[in-house]
Design goal:
- InterPro entries: Glutathione-S-Trfase_C-like, Glutathione-S-Trfase_C_sf, Glutathione_S-Trfase, Glutathione_S-Trfase_N, Thioredoxin-like_sf.
- Keywords: Transferase.
- It holds the Pfam family GST_C_2.
- The structure is a single chain.
- The chain is α+β, with helices and mostly antiparallel strands and 206 residues long.
- The chain folds into two domains: 75 residues, Glutaredoxin; 114 residues, Glutathione S-transferase Yfyf (Class Pi), Chain A, domain 2 (Up-down Bundle), CATH 1.20.1050.10.
- It has seven helices and four strands, in the order E-H-E-H-E-E-H-H-H-H-H.
- A four-stranded mixed β-sheet has the order 2-1-3-4, with helices on one face.
- Helix 1 runs parallel beside helix 3, helix 4 runs antiparallel to helix 5 and helix 5 packs across helix 7.
- It starts with a strand and ends in a 14-residue tail after the last helix.
Length: 206
């Protein structure tokens, strides 16, 4: 299997962590950012959106990070990260979808302003609003984790924790005033105890 995308991308790291949790051999190729351009024809043939990551395996190419993670778990996971029962699976996927929509939308402006230093993301009011919304979203996650006492969807580590674990890492590593969320911090410590997590959650890569 090939993973196309640079390792600083949080979406690429979702896929890499999933592969490592499943013990799947793979090779990563640098695309995007300052590496190979994703608008060239051979990349667009794999993902017409010109975005990373892209997974290429014996069946072809796939794009959209959460979809790639679901595919890997379903095809290779034997029910460990994504169970086959409809209700159990839905409880996991709802948190994956929440991460991709509500949580990502909350952190985007503040992260691009404070970490990426992206031109045009320098409005103090917009930064403050993003931080407030981000902390509110993480507070919601904190309540869920306090309820389960372990992981996002229950007592067992699942694919939801791959996407939310990296989002939690991003929240903790971004220089903002963090809400006091003890369940989130305990959750992060549990994730760091997993061998596959720390390589994709380094302090220098929020």
């Amino acid at each position: 299997m090939r993973v196309l995308g640079h390792a600083a991308s949080i979406n690429v790291r979702k896929v890499l962590w999933t592969l490592d949790e499943l013990g799947l051999a793979h090779q990563r190729e640098d695309w995007g950012a300052s590496f190979a351009p994703t608008r060239q024809p051979d990349f667009l043939a794999l993902n017409p959106n010109g975005l990373i990551p892209v997974l290429v395996d014996d069946l072809g190419s796939l794009w959209e990070s959460n979809t790639i993670c679901r595919y890997l778990a379903q095809r290779h996971g034997g029910g460990t990260l994504l169970p086959p029962a409809a209700r159990d699976r839905a409880l996991i996927e709802q948190w994956m979808d929440w991460q991709a929509t509500e949580l990502n939308g909350a952190w985007r402006y503040a992260f691009l302003a404070l970490v990426r230093k992206t031109p045009g993301f320098d409005d103090p009011a917009a930064i403050a609003a993003s931080i407030t919304t981000w902390n509110a979203a993480m507070t919601l996650l904190d309540r869920q984790l306090a309820t389960t006492g372990a992981y996002a969807a229950g007592e067992t580590f699942s694919l939801a924790d791959v996407v939310l674990g990296l989002s939690t890492h991003r929240w903790l590593m971004t220089p903002i005033d963090h809400a006091d969320l003890p369940a989130v911090r305990a959750y992060y410590d549990r994730l760091r105890a997993r061998a596959a997590f720390p390589p994709h959650a380094r302090a220098d890569v929020p």
